[in-house]
Every structure is written in structure tokens, then in C-alpha cells.
Amino acid sequence: MSIQPGVGYTFNASSQGSNLTIEKPWAPWATYATTEDPGHPFKIVNVSIRTVGSAKSIIYQVQSGIINNLVPKIDDYITSTEVLLDRVTSGVPNPPTAELTSAFFDASTKTSYITLRAGAKTTSPYNYPDSVFSSNQYPVIIGGNTFPVTPDSDTWGYLVIGTITVDSITAPTTFTVTQNVTGSLWADRIKLGTTTAKYYYARI
After folding, report:
1. What is the DSSP letter of 163?
2. Positive or negative: CA dihedral 98, 186, 131, 190
3. Which residues, other chains included, contact 32 with Cβ-Cβ below 8 Å and sequence gap of 6+?
4. What is the 8-class DSSP label of residue 104?
5. How crowded is the C-beta side of 173, counted as CA atoms within 13 Å?
6. For residue 71, what pLDDT is reported?
């Protein structure tokens, strides 16, 4: 009978007999080294400079996350429509890409504030955030040239998830991304009497 060496054992045969050794060599552990950042909900990613003729702008994506179990939408510059952050096309993930033109940057700080806006439903039941996708109160990611985009109101609450700062708002060549939010969120809206509604957020 002929036995060949295999993974996890060796076999030796001679005129003096046969020897099966199972101590070494063991099959090596499979090791995988990677430097890829897995990211996190609401992380600003794939930021780049878009050039069309002489015009330049910043394009970016936001990794999908949830606020009160709702996936926000964002304006996809390719289709010019608001779509969910976790958009899927033909069964394949197809995250939307947003665009920041010069109007979305603060003229002095050269910063755009990437903001999560969400509002309460305007008709009964007045749930927050509004879960109707077509509603203006549905959670949406927007860019703005002030911090926050506008002050909180009875209509909407605003949370800056991060910023993008450029060297020039009309002809950017470099940019810096700063992240404020690093996870999905649970939010509460509290309104008492005639005072302006207050918004509170917790990472989940």
C-alpha cells in the first residue's frame, strides 16, 4: 500500500517499517491583511473634484445609516432626484452621489456643512421623523454654507454629520473631510407650548 504525504501529516516507509507522523507540518493558518476601512453609518466617502469644462465642484457619497429606523435620502446629481442612501439597482448596491457647487460653501471658511435634516409629520399622527418618502419632512442629507444650514425650528431639526473644506470654492484642487457622526441615530423631538421644538440625538 502506498501512502503519500498530505496536509497535516507525513508518511515515511523503509525496509524497517512504516511511520505516520501527524504532528508536523500543520496546514498554515489562512491570514488576510487589509488596510481597507470598513467605514460606519453616515460616513462621508468617495469625495472627489468634478470638472466640467472650466467649472469645478465637489462630489461625495454618504454611507447608509438610519435615523429612527429610516434610511435618509440624498439628491443624486446624476439623476437629479432624491434617492435613498442604500439605493439598489438591478440587485446591485448603487449608492447615490451628491454634488456641492460654490453656492454650498461658506465664502470665508470655504467649508460645506453636510447636514441631516428631518422634520415631524405635519398632519395627524405627528410622528417624528415623517416616514413618508415624498414628504419634505422625510430625513434627507443636504449640503449647506452655514453651520447649521438653518437654525432648528418647529418644522425641521438639523444635525451636521461632517464637513468638507476646500482650498477654493470656485476652483478646488484640494479638500479636507471632517466627520462628526460615526453611527446610526435615534432622535427625539420635544415641543412644549409655544417654544421652538428641541431635537436630541443618540448614536445607536
Report:
1. E
2. negative
3. none
4. G
5. 0
6. 98
CB atoms within 10 A of CB 11: 14
Which mean pLDDT values do the consecutive 10-residue runs of the chain (204 residues) have?
59 69 55 68 97 96 98 96 97 96 96 96 90 96 88 93 97 97 96 93 94
Bridge partner list, 198: 190
Contact 159, 42 (CB under 8 A): no
Q: Give me the pLDDT at residue 38, please.
A: 78
Taking the CA atoms of residue 110, residue 165, residue 43 and residue 50 in that order, the dihedral angle to the nearest 10 degrees is 90
CA-wise closest residue to 121 among 155, 91, 148: 155
Q: Is the peptide bond before 25 cis (omega within 30 degrees of 0)?
A: yes
Q: Residue with C-alpha cell 473634484? A: 49
Distance from C-alpha of 82 to C-alpha of 29, rounded to nearest angstrom: 47
The number of beta carbons lying within 10 Å of the beta carbon of residue 178 is 12
3-state SS, one letter per residue, for 52-79: ECCEEEEEEEECCCCECCECCEEEECCC
- 3-class DSSP assignment, residue 103: helix
Dihedral of CA atoms 197, 103, 95, 38 in degrees, nearest 10, equals -80
pTM of the model: 0.80
Cell of 61: 457619497
Dihedral pair phi/psi, residue 103, rounded to 5° = -65, -20
90: which residues sit within 8 A by CB, 6+ positions away? none
